[in-house]
Write a structure and sequence with these properties.
By secondary structure, this protein is α/β, with parallel strands linked by helices. It has a single domain, classed as Molybdenum Cofactor Biosythetic Enzyme, Chain A (3-Layer(aba) Sandwich), CATH 3.40.980.10. About 35% of the residues lie in helices and about 20% in strands. The chain is built from six helices and eight strands. Strand 6 (about 135-140) and strand 7 form a beta hairpin. The chain starts with 13 loop residues before the first strand and ends in a 7-residue tail after the last helix. This is Molybdenum cofactor biosynthesis protein B. Belongs to the MoaB/Mog family. InterPro entries: MoaB (IPR012245), MoaB/Mog-like_dom_sf (IPR036425), MoaB/Mog_dom (IPR001453), MoaB_proteobac (IPR013484), MoCF_biosynth_CS (IPR008284).
């Protein structure tokens, strides 16, 4: 027995043209011992995509692979009323210097497990089993969305183009992160 045909093409997601786009204030943090703003290709890709999608680049910084320094920068941005979303790039691997997930553990109120799962599913289609080395993750802290992406240019492009550009668009249906923002601190 099949599913009844409603006559309407079913898509997994779509933009509702009757809704207005709401710009988010997004901060980008690169975690690296070797990059600066002139050599930070992944951070630049994210910044270009953020502004190209109509969002405001509220802040951009680079910190070394240090849990304490990552936590300090995240906490500062989380405390700001001018930042809705923080996206980090770098430090999500499995080597000794990769500590971004450990820093996130210290600041997150809630994890969004589906973000990392979906990222690795999409990544698998491009890099195969190598995606198992990524500890990409998402979560919420004090009403701010946080996403930790790998440091490669391909990974940040994929995460933005295939996940975040949609979830950070208030017109995206059937649901999106922007619609949830006013309710993130409810108790």
């Amino acid at each position: 027995m099949g599913v009844p045909d409603s006559g309407r093409a079913v898509t997994m997601s779509e933009l509702d043209p009757d809704l207005l786009f709401k710009s988010c204030n997004i901060a980008i943090l690169t975690v690296s011992d070797t990059r600066d703003l002139t050599t930070d290709r992944s951070g630049t890709i994210l910044a270009e995509r953020v502004t190209g999608a109509g969002h405001h680049l509220a802040a951009r910084d680079i910190v070394p692979d240090s849990v304490e320094e990552i936590v300090a920068r995240l906490r500062g941005w989380i405390a700001s009323d001018d930042i809705d979303v923080v996206i980090t790039t770098g430090g999500t691997g499995i080597t000794g210097r990769d500590v971004t997930p450990e820093a996130f553990d210290r600041v997150l109120d809630k994890e969004i497990p589906g973000f990392g799962e979906l990222f690795r599913i999409l990544s698998y289609a491009k890099i195969g089993t190598s995606t198992i080395q990524s500890r990409a993750l998402g979560g919420i802290a004090s009403g701010t969305f946080l996403f930790a992406l790998p440091g490669s240019t391909g990974a940040v492009a994929d995460a933005w183009d295939d996940i975040l550009v949609h979830q950070l668009d208030s017109r995206h249906k059937p649901c999106n992160f922007v619609d949830l923002m006013p309710r993130l601190t409810e108790r």
